[in-house]
Structure formats: C-alpha cells, structure tokens
Amino acid sequence: MKQPLNKFEPYAFLLARILIGYMFLLHGTAKFFEFPLSMTDGNGSVPLFSQYGLAGMLEIVGGILFILGCFTRSVAFVLSGMMAFAYFVVHGGNPLLPMLNEGEGAALYSLVFLLFVFTGAGKISVDNLISQKIHPSDFRQPYST
Questions:
Q1: Which range is least confidently modeled, 17-26, 32-41, 47-56, 114-123?
Q2: How many Cα atoms within 13 Å fall on the side-chain side of residue 70?
Q3: For the chain, how are helix, strand and coil distributed in percent, rounded to 5?
Q4: What integer pLDDT is reported at residue 98 of this predicted model?
Q5: pLDDT tens-digit series, residues 64-102
C-alpha cells in the first residue's frame, strides 16, 4: 500500500537538492567572487591552485551539478569526501566535539552528501531524465519510404 506522503517525495528531494546545492555553491562564490561575503583576507579571491582554491572550485562546480541533479551520486561522493577532509583536517581538534572545532557545517554537509550517494537525485533531476529508456517505437517516422 502506497503511503499518502510518498507523492511528495520527488518534490522533497528536489527542494533538498536545490537548497543544499545553493548553500554549498555560495561557499565557492564567497572564495572567488567575494559574494555574498568575502572569505579572503582582503586580497581579492583565493589562489586558484591552492587547497582553498580547489575547495572553491569543487563548491562551485559541485554545487551547480548538485542543484541540477546531474551525476548526483558521483558528485555527492566527491563532495562528501571533501567535507570529511575539511572536518577532520581543516577544522581539526576533537572530532567528537564539533562545536569546539567549528566543524558542524562540514560534518553535516559530509553526511548529507553521503546520503545522496545512496539515494540518488530523485525523480525530478537530470540524472532521471538521462536514465529514462526510450523505446525505438517511440520515434515516429515523418515520411514513409
């Protein structure tokens, strides 16, 4: 028996993907374009070929792909690993006390992206559009030969 709330599942996945991807994207735009705030020391954008620059590129590209639901499982896997690295290495400190090392955001992003590795993007996504199989008989011949 289908549950009454299951009909909203595609919209819940879509909303979650858009909000998570948008918030993640803003971390990258803050690093490179100082929008909506500056994450630099006042010298403009971060160096492209640095650990911080690589993180910014992954945040921008990964955020956009995640919003669209394109290559979601692969993107989520990479981003989950990136955020786990950020939590354990960048934030350091005691991993059992994320409030003390200010790594709550990194830990939550890592877990959420890991969740999307297993669930996928949902029905309203580019991934779903690509995976739909089209039967050859669906193509109509405009002219008969």
A1: 32-41
A2: 7
A3: 65, 0, 35
A4: 79
A5: 999 999 999 999 999 999 999 999 988 887 777 778 888
| Contacting residues for 44 by C-beta, under 8 A, at least 6 apart | 34
Instruction: Return d(Cα 4, Cα 119) in angstroms, integer.
Output: 20
- CA–CA dist 138, 141 (Å, integer): 10
The answer to whether residues 95 and 40 touch, using CB atoms and an 8 Å cutoff, is: no
Residue of 8, 34, 32 lying closest to 123 (CA atoms): 8
* One-letter amino acid of 87: Y
59 neighbors 31 (Cβ within 8 angstroms): yes
Q: Is 59 exposed, middle or buried (0-12, 13-18, 19+ CB in 10 A)?
A: buried
Q: Locate tokens 């709550």: which residue?
A: 104
Q: What residue type is assigned to position 85 of the chain?
A: F
CA-to-CA distance for 8 and 125, rounded, in angstroms?
A: 15
Question: Exposure string (b/e) for 105-136, b if CB count within 10 Å is 16 or more?
Answer: bbbebbebbbebbeebbbebbebbeeeeeeee
Residue 96's Cβ-count burial label (10 Å; 0-12, 13-18, 19+) is: exposed
